[in-house]
Input
Amino acid sequence: DTVCTVHLGACCFGPNLCIGDAGEADCVAGGGTYQGDQSDCGAACVFEDSGDLDGDGDVDGNDFIAFQACFTGDGGGLLVGCGGADLDVDDDVDLIDWGAFQSLFAPGDPPAHR
Output
């Protein structure tokens, strides 16, 4: 009898986007970043770049404007200065990055009425 062991771990698609129990080949084929066998989604998918494209400590409308300028689509490459918008770290800014960006976006409190 042959025992087939499948090694599974966390597959990251950007901050807060993680699939647990993914196989490495499937993760990479789907555009994810495999975190290693037996890894979990706990803190595995927190990347240094977290949508704060202007570096002011939040993800707001200014970052949204910058994200739009960086959007290249799937396989479209990465424009100069747009590494922070590539939230799934696959060298383009596409809809997967957009989904991650939306989960981080906090436009703040609406202005007070006068």
